[in-house]
Design a protein that fits this description.
Rossmann fold; eight-stranded mixed sheet; seven-stranded mixed sheet; 9 helices; alpha/beta
């Protein structure tokens, strides 16, 4: 891994940190280069489980939320503007020296954030540009208006949070999947990538469902799901859905899997969800999945399940059902003697 823009900016003296004291680093990706920092001084603040665990496994102190004060803050910009502004305000609040470093790609809005920091009255350092992005630091300024509410009220009595998937309302694909599943589920259900709980609440509307396990990697989304679902049959798991292994042999898995890493589409994410579903389902289990029409999931579904069918959708989304998994809970691909079906 080459030296990052952030580390290059520090080593070049374009941005500076206090010589001693603790540094709160907000939402660095699990692959981010922090080699210019003394790891003993760093606390990683990250609510996305795979990145949280990546830093913990490397020996860093990691937390979901910053608590107390630090001597400086570092923010790696997320895609969502409201979340980015909130992280900067949190970093400014916890920085005793007043120093906050911001690093981000142009595609993640770093230029508009830079302008907004200046407009807020901050004293901005030299701006270090590299690899289609910028790193800068600031002191001072009034960021009190940048704090986002912990939860957002949306339609149908749901709450969401800044930066989570479909924070502004119910996702069209999820609504199509919920309609296709209506009256079809019973027994033990797993919602992979449950988000803030829309699909799980629909699942639990059936009295035939005995358990619904919500598996979600984004801590803030899972906290919203806890608020949105008041049902003793619900169990909540902060985990990487592609690696989740607890409480297997489900009767059904439902999922609207993510397909972006940053702004880049990556079908392998959904393919990982399909593999996880095949492993988690019992031998007579069924996967219910919604995806954008352009995503090539049919080959993975056909390899992992004995039967695959398209149930419908619309011009943008397809709803798919797959049964007879070849995973750990299912029968092997040679044991059924029946053809795979895709309609």
């Amino acid at each position: 891994m080459g030296r990052s823009r952030f580390s290059s900016a520090l080593l070049a003296g374009a941005v500076e940190l206090p010589q001693t004291g603790q540094i709160a680093v907000f939402r660095p990706s699990g692959e981010q280069d922090l080699s210019a920092l003394d790891a003993a001084r760093v606390q990683i603040i990250h609510g996305f489980y795979p990145h949280h665990e990546a830093w913990r496994s490397r020996g860093y102190r990691v937390a979901v939320e910053a608590s107390g004060s630090h001597d400086a803050g570092v923010v790696f910009l997320p895609r969502a503007k409201a979340q980015a502004r909130d992280l900067i305000a949190r970093a400014a609040d916890c920085s005793q020296s007043g120093i906050v470093i911001v690093d981000g790609q142009k595609t993640d809005g770093v230029d508009s954030i830079l302008k907004a920091c200046r407009k807020a009255g901050a004293r901005v350092s030299e701006v270090f540009s590299k690899a289609h992005g910028k790193t800068f630091s600031f002191t001072g300024g009034d960021f009190s208006g940048w704090r986002a509410p912990a939860q957002l009220d949306i339609e149908a009595g749901f709450v969401t949070a800044p930066g989570v998937f479909s924070a502004d309302g119910i996702d069209t694909g999820s609504a199509l999947l919920a309609a296709a599943m209506q009256g079809q589920l019973k027994g033990r259900v797993c919602d992979l990538g449950a988000g803030w709980g829309y699909l799980s609440r629909k699942v639990l509307s059936s009295e035939k469902v005995t358990e619904c396990h919500l598996v979600e990697a984004e801590h803030a989304a899972l906290e919203c799901a806890r608020h949105n679902i008041d049902d003793a049959r619900a169990q909540f798991h902060w985990a990487d859905a592609t690696q989740f292994s607890g409480a297997g042999d489900f009767d059904h898995v439902v999922t609207n899997p993510p397909f972006h890493v940053g702004r880049a589409a990556d079908a392998s994410l959904g393919q990982g969800f399909i593999a996880a579903a095949a492993r988690l389902l019992g031998r007579r289990g069924t996967l219910w999945l919604v995806a954008n029409r352009h995503l090539p999931y049919e080959r993975e579904l056909a390899a992992a399940f004995g039967e695959v069918a398209e149930l419908g959708g619309d011009g943008s989304f397809k709803v798919l059902r797959a049964s007879r998994p070849h995973g750990a809970g299912g029968r092997g691909p040679q044991s059924t003697g029946r053809k795979q079906v895709l309609t």
